[in-house]
Design goal:
Jelly Rolls, alpha+beta, 26% helix, eight-stranded antiparallel β-sheet
Length: 238
């Protein structure tokens, strides 16, 4: 199954067409090709080209790429609001959100409450609960690059448990014009073909185990990261 949209049964994989305009995507690709800052792509345990073969550039802390980082996060933010509108449980199921009831007490938010919010109110709620991860630019070369290892985005890697705060994954495809190179989800039996500017959003857990297939007939460029929960000390104080 190779498509842009969810099947009749929700699979929680959403694709937003043209989330980032083609000119911006082409400019990012050109800068990546010209950059000397890319390094071998890593998985959780380090550099293993048999699992992931790419050239990557993390935008975290890079002032020279701050404009790209902002443009990508702005595009993702709009897609995230649409995702939460479709799946409000992404916020209310794990967090049991409450708001003032107008009588000095609190009441729990429901899916209908989120549906009734305008973008300003929903955006404020999303920013209270969630935060962007570090953006990683990735270059997969024709016929050799790829991420063939079936993986998810949650793992107990670091003492601060940042990798366990990942809630949603996202990818913006920066180019197309090649064969294969799909993002393939194991259990959903779904392949998403790269199309310039499209934004993919999906859950991070093992239920959405996935891989990046090798491009054929051209190089593949993507931007990717996660939407994380705010840390407990931010959400609950202390």
């Amino acid at each position: 199954m190779d498509d842009r949209h969810a099947s009749a049964v929700d699979d929680f994989i959403e694709v937003v067409p043209a989330a980032l305009d083609a000119a911006s995507c082409a400019a990012i690709v050109e800068r990546m090709r010209a950059s000397d800052a890319l390094s071998p792509g890593q998985v959780g345990g380090g550099v293993f080209p048999d699992l992931k073969h790419s050239r990557d550039l993390s935008l975290a802390g890079r002032a020279d790429w701050a404009d790209v980082d902002q443009a990508l996060n702005v595009a993702v933010y709009a897609g995230l609001l649409a995702y939460v509108r479709r799946y409000p449980q992404a916020l209310i199921a794990p967090l049991m959100l409450q708001q003032p009831d107008g009588r000095g007490g609190l009441r729990r938010l429901s899916a209908d409450d989120l549906a009734a919010m305008d973008d300003t109110a929903l955006g404020a709620l999303v920013r209270t609960c969630l935060r962007p991860g570090a953006v990683n630019l990735q270059w997969y070369r024709d016929g050799e690059g790829g991420y063939p290892y079936w993986h998810c985005e949650l793992y107990p890697r670091d003492a601060q448990c940042e990798t366990l705060h990942r809630h949603l994954l996202w990818t913006i495809y920066l180019n197309d014009g090649f064969d294969a190179g799909e993002t393939e989800f194991m259990f959903q039996r779904r392949k998403v073909s790269p199309r310039t500017g499209d934004l993919l959003i999906a859950p991070t857990a093992f239920t959405h185990t996935h891989r990046g297939n090798r491009p054929q007939g051209g190089d593949k460029f993507i931007a990717t990261s996660w939407i994380l929960f705010q840390r407990a000390e931010q959400l609950y104080g202390g």
